[in-house]
Amino acid sequence: MMERVTNDFGGSRAARQIHAMYATRLMTEIYHLVQPGGHHTLCGLRISRVTSERKSNTLQLVNELPAKVTICKHCERIQGQENNLAADLRGSNADL
């Protein structure tokens, strides 16, 4: 998921909005999670800046997932590792 913080010009700095961003090849039934910045997936694939409505082999950003798609196993594993690390950090900070 990508986290965006509103700036001082657009509102409160303390307000945080989380926007899920996904990337997919329209020819496949697999989607990827996108790193902050929107240029690469969690598993390291580069996302095309060219958007096309027809089915192609380029990895494109999408706001919503099509029906019946599966998460990339590598993105899923990396996300799980990041979530575990975040949980461990929260637990160690509670001990302070």
Describe the structure in your own words.
The chain is an alpha+beta fold. 23% of the residues lie in helices and 21% in strands. The chain contains 1 helix and 6 strands. The protein has one helix spanning 73-94, and strands spanning 2-5, 16-19, 22-24, 30-33, 60-62, 70-71. The strands form 2 sheets. A 4-stranded mixed β-sheet has the order 5-3-4-6. It has a two-stranded antiparallel sheet with strand order 1-2.
Q: What is the terminal separation in angstroms? A: 28 Å
Number of strands: 6
Instruction: Name the overall outline.
Output: elongated
Calculate Rg over CA atoms.
Answer: 16 Å
Spatial strand sequence of the major β-sheet: 5-3-4-6
Uncertain regions spanning at least 5 consecutive residues: 1-9, 12-17
N-to-C order of helices and strands: EEEEEEH
On the 0 to 100 scale, the average pLDDT is: 79
Largest sheet, in brief, is: 4 strands, mixed
Specify the structural class. Answer: alpha+beta
Number of helices: 1
The percentage helix is: 10-25%
Q: Strand content of the residues, in percent?
A: 15-25%
